[in-house]
Amino acid sequence: MPQAPAMTSRTSRSPGRVPRRSRRPPVVRRRQRGIALTYGVTLVELGFETLYPLATGIAVDGLLDGRPPAVLLLVGVWLAHTVVGVVRQRHDTRLFTRLYAEAVTEFVAAQGGRGVPTATLAGRAALARELVDFLEFDVPGLLTTVVGALASLALLSVYEARAAGLAVLLLAVAGVLNWRYARSAGRIDAELNDAAENEVDVIAGRRPRALGAHLTRVADLRVRLSDAEARTWGSTELVAVAVTVAVLVLLTRDGSPSPGDVFAALAYLWALLAAVDTLPSTVERTVQARDVLRRLDLAGVDGPDPPADPAP
């Protein structure tokens, strides 16, 4: 990419100042527009998903009142969502398969030139697939979880403000539990990635006892990770049960809400609960991706930092 002249560039560096390297891998920086498009369309899809309970509630009340055209909003939202989803999936497949090929090629060329052992390179090439999967599936999932939970909370408050208050309490508890889980998962994932990098050497050694010890250690680490996730999810579910029962009481005790309103409020509550349920797995994948990115050191494949601008 051509650079602006040094005299007018806002990013010009003073003599002796060392520029800070971007934390994003070069291959990601080159394809950032395509990635941003994917994430933007993901948010559009989330908007359609958020409209489903509202449109369904309107359709239910309309049909009960003898107004069949009330179902047209639901049909329109559904068809538009389908079209956008098909286009996004076609774009994603092409984008991320090419990104994976470029990422592995660049980091192997860079780290192979630094003398990194072939066995380590093979292990890290496998880890690169996990990083690309994170960008393709887990980042959109994280966006859907966070934005979807906030949207569901906002719309739930329209139907029952006290129910929204209980939902905020649930989110706070889930946040604390998943923060603790992230710390534990980070340590375990680092050990798992260490094992993945060494696995080729262990297999090449052809020593059954060493291989058995290696695989047993990997199994133990995965059990620890699964147990930590199960504890986090189970503790969150206990709070979710109490919140759900309380919301049901609030929705049915005061006044006489229409069936469509009750359905929509409960649907938004369930959408929020579904988002909370995905938090542990999303947290684990995020800390895993951070460790993988550190190991791949893709930020180094674009060569050394450029020299400082000469003094005038």
How does this structure look, described?
The chain is an all-alpha fold. It has a single domain (26-300), classed as ABC transporter type 1, transmembrane domain (ABC transporter transmembrane region fold, Up-down Bundle), CATH 1.20.1560. It has helices spanning 26-30, 32-64, 72-113, 118-159, 161-204, 208-253, 259-296. The chain starts with 25 loop residues before the first helix and ends in a 16-residue tail after the last helix.
Summarize the structure.
The chain has 312 residues and is mainly alpha-helical.
The CATH superfamily is known as ABC transporter type 1, transmembrane domain
Number of helical regions: 7
CATH class: Mainly Alpha
Kindly identify the CATH topology: ABC transporter transmembrane region fold
Sheet with the most strands, sense and barrel status: none
**Overall structural domain count:** 1
Distance between the termini: 24 Å
CATH architecture: Up-down Bundle
| Inertia-based shape | globular
Amount of helix: over 70%
Rg to the nearest angstrom? 25 Å
Q: Into which percentage range does the β-strand content fall? A: under 5%
Features:
312 residues; mainly alpha; globular; ABC transporter transmembrane region fold; single chain; disordered C terminus
Topology:
Elements: H1 26-30, H2 32-64, H3 72-113, H4 118-159, H5 161-204, H6 208-253, H7 259-296
Helix pairs in contact: 2-3, 2-4, 2-7, 3-4, 4-5, 4-7, 5-6, 5-7, 6-7
